[in-house]
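Regression test attached.
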Amino acid sequence: MVIPVAVVITFAFTAVFVVAAGADPFDAFYRFLVAPLTSPVTLLEVLVSATPILFTGAAVAIAFRAGYYNIGAEGQLLAGAIAAAGLGMVVGALPSLVALPIMVAGGAMAGAAWALLPALLRVRSGIDEVVTTLLLNPVALLLVNALLNGPWRDPETGFPESAPIAASAELPQLVARSRVHLGLVLALAIIAVAWFIITRTSAGLKLRAVGSSPRAAAFAGLDVNGTLLRAALVSGAIAGMAGVSEVAGIQDRLTGGLSAGAGYTGIVVATLGGLTMPGVAAAGLLLGDLRVGAGSAARALDIPSQVGEIVQATLLLVTIAALAIISRRRSTQAGR
Amino acid sequence: MRRGEIHALLGENGAGKTTLMRVVYGLTRPDSGEIVVAGRPVAIRSPKDAIAAGIGMVTQHFSLVRPMTVAENLALGRGSGMRLDLTLAAAAATEASQRLGMRVQPSARVDSLSIGQQQRVEIVKALARDCRVLILDEPTAVLVPQEVEGLFSALRKLAAQGLAIVFISHKLGEVLALTDRVTVLRGGRVEGSAVTAAVDERTLAELMVGRPVVGQERAPAVVGSATRDPLLEVDSLAANKANGLPALRGVSFRVHAREVLGVAGVSGNGQSELVEVLSGTRPLGGGLVKVAGVTLRGGSVPEVIRAGIGRIAEDRQASVVGDLSVAYNLVLERIDDFRKGGRLDEEAIQRNARSLIERFAIRATPQAPVRTLSGGNIQKVLLARVLAREPKVLIVSQPTRGLDVGATEYVRSELLAARERGAAVLLVSEDLDELLALSDRLIVMYEGKVVGALNAAGADRGQLGLLMAGRGSAGAAAEQSA
């Protein structure tokens, strides 16, 4: 496994920043990684923190597997969140059993819709999706802020937050006196289904073929553009569900900072997980751990919370480097 | 290697020829041993070191920047100062191409050139860097006979100027005709080294494969096949190149059951486009294609496959998904036939793989990723994938390019076996010997048109060469009668 090695190397690199921030690196890394797992309360917080990035990690991994580089999970998440907040305010009369599927489906459709334009541009005109999906992220954030400062501003408090969603539209808690909610189960179920589709179905085999050699796939008669389009929309839909999960599971309303960069962290999760679904589950939990640990380490050791982000970014770079070295070594061994 | 010597490096695929030369050129790190250039041991860690030591190499897969012109590609290798002097690069290209005796247009964009022309650019690039040792990895694989002759005389001229030339080839005749000495590799070891004049073709072949070699046996053409209904009819076919210029201008021919129709021609005269149109990967620009009486709309791979066409494309690597297993690649054209409900029928896929691996003597396990296979075994995977469906029509392009003697023999025998089973085979090849050995009839393409048609038996190489060069229209009448 690459991840444990990458973690050790990452700590060696980032120790410099921890020391510069005036803390003992071993203590800091203990708090980053291990401490969150030692008490039930923080352990549950790790799961809460992992929930959105499990969604976005799966979303990004599916797209990347098809060779579609969706960098827009952040914007698709926000589109899903807008849809969830909007629907949540109007489904109050319905029972949860009806309201929740509507919320999830609506968020998924909004995420897919946000992913549609770049996907069409790529398939029809060959316009690079890395640029277009990325550029739509700030557009989605501006849309959220426009809503929160305009029509959806909370009428009672006047804060730039939407009015709370109906109680029947909230994702139920899983563990009493914790924030762990049904979104976690939904994320894990999606990862399981995605795993099954990618590894066990003909659609998954086509996706893998298109992703790893589009020319050979086209030569064999596979529908390359159709596969890309479907992968892009499914990816957007799953990212949209992350938005539903945060609105209906944690915030109970639309807020400006609800994503906390989960869309971008999803790229880290997908890459760390080697674009496989078991890998995404493991990497999602690891980064959830790190997110919680970075927060408590910052408080306990009085170091900037950005150190946690430095660790996370370094972990990504080290993993990519490790994967590149491995694949290069493999190709020199296999190469003639 | 001596100064002014042309030295052949001979061996089957996987014998280590390319690996050895990649080590010399700094593309692969050696585990041990040393390289001595002009009496001095040198450490070659990258192509940069090799170039500095006076070593140039033309690899099988070209290292040209495709959207750039020839002159720009040359300028890339010469990094002298900040200023980009394209006039100088163009002059160097012209000078080097004159030394070679091959025309190369400095202002041409590389992606508008045929594979054969791109290779000339590679050779010119190496020459323009003033190398003392020139390594050529299968340089003749993409050339027509006339060009091969031109290349040979050029190489002799360069050798006379003191250049040492390593010539990697599978073609024994070329080795005998061109080289001064020959070294045979097998399984990563030197099997023997000799003065070329002192050995014959058979001895070399046996050294290469380690067993005696037999030639192709081929049943005679079926008498009167032309009077039966054709399986593949192509009428006034037109198609454009990627750049929008016409590639095919009114191509017409027929291929009957139990017949191999060979397509000869200098590379870049429309053969690739013809194959692509018939393979469904390039849209029809006009005209008519019928398979067993059914008209194709064109531009769709599934349609072509459904009509009963089997395709062996020129670019093997672009026909397989390297990361996927042999078993998956064998079902790539019909994944949906291997489903149980929504799931992949893994058991059937493995069973299919095991039986095809045995039938086509593929040296690999079903689970092995295709990228770990040799060129010959990849070609066998492609043959197995196509022939397992018993296609009515086979469209085959350069089926043995870059394959060793054993694999070549095998691929050719499978193509002839398909013909025996009643398939119509369209064979495009730049290897005249192959065309003459396998075809019943030949057509010659020049500038997007069929300029000649003749029976393969008793075909005259001189006449073929003239037709391929666009001179003489002999056989135009024969095409009408075919």
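Expected vs. actual: identical. The domain at 2-330 of chain A is CATH 1.10.3470 (ABC transporter involved in vitamin B12 uptake, BtuC).
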